[in-house]
Amino acid sequence: MINYTIGLIDKKIAKELIIANHYSHKWTSCRYALGLFDEGNLIGVAVYGFPVGRQTVKSITPDLNNDDVLELTRLWLVDEAPKNSESFFIGKTFDWLRKNTSIKVLISYSDPMQDHLGIIYQATNWLYQGNNTMLIKGYLHKIFGELMHPRSVVALYGSIQQDHLKAIDPSYERIEMKKKHRYLYVLHNKHRKSIISKLKHPILSYPKNNLNCDWGKNNPIEK
């Protein structure tokens, strides 16, 4: 990884690579698209965007403003990248954000419906806040065989009402989403103590599995 470098890349290029190669095959919120280069060849993309939920920032701590927080919304590397390339890449994006932005906190989620625990966040020392930070149960919508997020459904079909969607596709299904794991990273040591002391949700031990991600099952609160 000696020859690896990172830098801003065009959002259109990032979008093409994410849609083609990321497991979601979907684009998302993007403020900064950072590329990982191996001797000039683009081999990875990290996308940071402003958190989508209006209350997300204040759910971290009331002292943070919307322009203090970014969400790591997508991460992709070529399959041939050596072991630990993801950790290296994420660490370098931290350095870039410290030097080029005023961002204080990063947030990201791992999706148990993809059997993800957030191992990369654990390897790069993010803070874990469990999977009880979202209070409202969410659903995916399966329309014409495609699983879709509610925002995408509203954009395409105008509503997420089940009767409306069943009229469009008689085979329509509504699928309960599992509770996602939430991770935080404080970018600057000078802010770390103050931010951690005011967190709305406790810092927990890293999860070992996804057995408690169904609604009605809670994480034990561990300091």
Ranges where pLDDT stays below 50 over 5 or more residues in a row are: 219-223
CATH class of the largest domain: Alpha Beta
Please tell me what the overall shape is. globular
Biggest sheet strand order reads: 1-2-3-4-5-10-6
Q: What is the CATH architecture assignment of the largest domain?
A: 3-Layer(aba) Sandwich
Order of SSEs, N→C?
EHEEEHEHEEEHHEEH
Strand content: 25-35%
Distance between the termini: 36 Å
The biggest sheet, with number of strands, parallel, antiparallel or mixed sense and barrel status, is: 7 strands, mixed
Would you tell me which CATH topology of the largest domain applies?
Answer: Aminopeptidase
Helix content: 25-40%
Estimated radius of gyration? 18 Å
| Total helical segments | 6
CATH superfamily annotation of the largest domain = Gcn5-related N-acetyltransferase (GNAT)
Class of secondary structure makeup: alpha+beta
Number of strands: 10
Average pLDDT level: 90
Number of domains: 2
Short summary of the structure?
With 223 residues, the chain is of the alpha+beta class. It has helices at residues 11-21, 85-100, 119-123, 150-157, 162-168, 189-197; strands spanning 4-8, 32-38, 41-49, 69-77, 105-110, 127-128, 139-143, 146-148, 173-176, 181-186.
Notable characteristics:
globular, 25% helix, seven-stranded mixed sheet, Aminopeptidase, three-stranded antiparallel sheet, alpha+beta, 223 residues
Give structural notes.
The protein has 223 residues and is of the alpha+beta class. The chain folds into two domains: 1-134 and 179-223, Gcn5-related N-acetyltransferase (GNAT) (Aminopeptidase); 139-176, no CATH class. It has helices at 11-21, 85-100, 119-123, 150-157, 162-168, 189-197; strands spanning 4-8, 32-38, 41-49, 69-77, 105-110, 127-128, 139-143, 146-148, 173-176, 181-186. The strands form two sheets. A seven-stranded mixed sheet has the order 1-2-3-4-5-10-6, sandwiched between helices. A three-stranded antiparallel sheet has the order 8-7-9. The two termini are 36 Å apart. Residues 219-223 have low confidence and may be disordered.
